[in-house]
Amino acid sequence: MTDERIIAYFLKELPEDDLERFEDECFSQESWPPEINLVEEELIDAYLRDDLTLERRQLFERNYLITPARQERAAMAAALLRHVDERNAVSMPPNGVTSLRSPWSNRFRAFWSRQSQALRVSAAIAVAALVIGAVWILFLRQPPNDTFATFTLTVNNSNRGEGSQPDKVRIPANVTALKISLTLPQEPPPAAHHRVELENDSGERRHVKVIEEGKQYVLVVIPVKQLAREQYALKLFGVQADGAEQRIAGSYRFVVE
């Protein structure tokens, strides 16, 4: 059941004998083959993007768009593509691209103009439901807004027994996370990116989230709920493209008061 055979089935290009064998293969399975739905979506997308040949475009309009269900499926896909096109047009810089119209958007306008008013309304409602649902899911997954206290630490190459004092960090009551900028050594080892570990007085370690990297710094965020009033050391590792790690000498020490 190749992609080309599935496309030929939807466009009614299969000879009668091949058509019967194709349908027998489909209905002999316990459930409708999922690859057929995937190829159908790709076929609709190719039509809307004007990627089909002239002959297949005509076959698509004449042999595929013959049922209300298929027409609505194509209308929903076209509406979603229009939504993406409009969103990209809004975010596009003024001097970015000379034309905002793509071949598929022109195809969409031609397709949309041929559909009935009822189909347009149903597609618009469906798209609105999808957009609202996506926004709602993102809203539910979005964590509460954090209030940050920002600090900058420099690497300390001495150990605790040598008497060097760690930086003192006082956390205000309304702060939910620390945003700490780790200043890199003057000649840091080359690395594709960095990994950071937080170690407490008991030797317990945990990974720290790196949110930004620059030539001279690595920015990390530590939730306040993970910190107690004790001394900590942030340890920095350079990670190569192949995954190999190299510990950067020293540590970034601080104490939570």
Write the layout of secondary structure elements.
Blueprint: H1 3-10, H2 16-27, H3 34-48, H4 54-64, H5 68-91, H6 103-114, H7 117-141, E1 148-154, E2 167-169, E3 177-183, E4 193-200, E5 205-213, E6 217-223, E7 231-239, E8 245-247, E9 252-256
Parallel strand pairs: 1-3, 2-9
Antiparallel strand pairs: 3-6, 4-5, 4-7, 5-6, 7-8, 7-9
Helix pairs in contact: 1-3, 5-6, 5-7
Structure explained in plain terms:
With 257 residues, this protein is an alpha+beta fold. It folds into 2 domains: 3-141, no CATH class; 148-256, Immunoglobulin-like. It contains 7 helices and 9 strands, in the order H-H-H-H-H-H-H-E-E-E-E-E-E-E-E-E. It has helices at 3-10, 16-27, 34-48, 54-64, 68-91, 103-114, 117-141, and strands at residues 148-154, 167-169, 177-183, 193-200, 205-213, 217-223, 231-239, 245-247, 252-256. Strands 1, 2, 3, 4, 5, 6, 7, 8 and 9 form a 9-stranded mixed sheet that branches. The chain is elongated, with a radius of gyration of 29 Å. The N and C termini lie far apart (67 Å). Residues 96-105 and 134-143 have low confidence and may be disordered.
Kindly summarize this structure in a few lines:
Helix content is 42%, strand content 23%. It is of the alpha+beta class and 257 residues long. Helix 1 crosses helix 3, helix 5 crosses helix 6 and helix 5 (68-91) crosses helix 7.
